[in-house]
Design a protein that fits this description.
Shape: globular
Amino acid sequence: MKLVKNICSIAITVIFSASVFGQIQAENQMVADTTFVNLKDYSSDFIYDMKYATDDNFLKAKVYDCDECYLRLQTVRALVEANREFVKKGYKIKLFDCYRPLSIQKKMWKIVSNPKYVADPKKGSIHNRGGAVDITLVDENCIELLMGTQFDHFGIEASHKYTKLSKEILNNRKLLKTVMQKHGFNAFDSEWWHYNLKAGLNEKVSNTNWNCNLLLDAF
């Protein structure tokens, strides 16, 4: 348990300097709501486990070059406000996926060409628009709250409508959903972890990419 807590503290410390720098930048520049920004530049209170930057995902393949969370600024602002409320309750948002460039969507589609699991890149998804996040909650020790299934479980058990779960799990899902909806996000019925910003649904599909080498050089 102590080891987990230390890892959590280290993760927050590592991104702190970048967060402060980003907040100063944001205060001194006029940034459009639709601009893509790095979440780490706006808050140090998130935990990251970016699944597609590893092979620990249903694709069994790493499709991101590095584990960054980019979103449109309007999504970041809403997400930060939601997380502030969770922090007051003793929790934090843990992120599994954020904005996904169209080139990555095409790579995923090539691995699994099934619209039940991966959105067809010809249409794109809300992830490609910078308005979606895949998340869960962790407690003060960075331990994930029980949600009934793992992230990207495609069975009926992952649905918000599925109720054959313990009271604890149902309450955890309700907490996540209630706070996220309060701050402008829609839930996705079949995936308890997926949330779309209402204001981002009409944004265009994007292929904006970030440079992992530049991000590493910043440290």
